[in-house]
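Summary: Need help interpreting a holo structure output

Steps to reproduce:
1. Submit the protein chain below together with the SMILES for zinc ion.
2. Request a joint structure prediction with the ligand placed.
3. Inspect the C-alpha cell block that comes back.

Expected: a single structure record containing both the chain and the bound molecule.
Actual: see attached output.

Input attached:
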Amino acid sequence: MKNIGTAKVIPGEKTEGYLHAGTDIDGASFKIPLLVAAGKEEGPTIWVHGCIHGDEFGGAASIIRFFEELNVQELRGTFVGVPVTNLPSFKGWSRISPLDGANLNRIFPGNPKGTYSQRLAHLLLSTIKETADYVLDLHSGGLALHVDYFMICKGGDSDAAQKSLWLAERMGSKVIWVTEQEGSVGGTITDHVMEFGIPNVTIEVGGGHISEKHEHQFKDSIKNAMKALELLPGDAPVQKEYEIYRKGDFIFAGEGGLFVPASKVGSILNKGDLIGTIINLHGKVVEEIRCSDDNAYLAATGHPYWPTEQGRLIAETYTK
Ligand SMILES: [Zn+2]
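--- attached output ---
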C-alpha cells in the first residue's frame, strides 16, 4: 500500500486525503483535497485535476461528481481526482493568485524556493511525476469567458505527444487544438508533464455558469479517457473525423466598455465576420471585433455586457 499525500491507496476502495501545499499568512495549511479510487486489479494511474485557474469551477465540480459516481468494482488501476489545485486563487474566485499575482499555468516547472505559486507549481509537478501515468487537465473560460467543448494536446513526434492525441480523439469532442511548441503560451503544467513522457489532455468546457450539459461533458470526457485506457470497461467513442486546429489567435479588447457578442462559440467564421462589439457607457459602439482569418473556429468569447477594460482577453479563434 502506498500513499498519495495523506490519502491511502487501497485496492478496491475509495479514499480521501490532502496534499499539504504550504501555509497562508495566518499559518493555516493549504490542504489540496485528493480523491483516490483504486481498482482491485492493478493498472495505470490517471491523475485528473481542476482549478489550476481558480475561477474555473466546472472542472472541480465535475471531478467531485465523477468520483461519487465511479464504481470502484469496475475500476482497473487508480483514479486520482484533484478538484482544486490552486487554493489561494480558488478562494479568491480569481484566475491569478491573490498571494503573488501569478498565473499558475504560466510558471511551471516552478521553484521550491520561490514565491508561493512557484512552490505550488513545483509541488504539483513533482507529485504528478511520482504518481501519474496519464494526466487530464480541466479548464473552462472561468468567470470572464465562455468556451465551447474541445480538447487540447501538444503537437510533436514523441510517444507521449502521439498518445495524447490518440487519447484526445477518444474523449468525446471532435474538436482538438493541437498546440505546437513554438506557438504555445509556455510554462503550462501540460508542457512539463509532457517532458516527463506522461501523455496528457486538457479539456475545455463552458465558463462561470456551470450547466448540467457542461458537467456531463467533463464527466463523459474523463470516463471516455478511462475506457480508452482500459481503466473502465466499455468502448470509448471514436468519431469518423476530427477538426484539428493548430493555430490559436487570442483577441484582446482594443477599447474599454461593455462587450456585446455577435457570434456564438463553436461557430466557424471567416475573415471580417463580426465576433462582437464594445459599447461605451453612453451606448456608442467604440470597437468592432472581427475575425482575422477564414475558416476560424470561435473557441471562446466574453459574456454579454460584462465590463471590459482595454487589453482584456475577449475571444479566441483557432485555425488549421
Ligand atoms: Zn484555465
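--- end attachment ---

Reviewer comment: The chain has a mean pLDDT of 96. Residues 53, 56, 139 surround zinc ion (CB under 6 Å).
Status: needs-info
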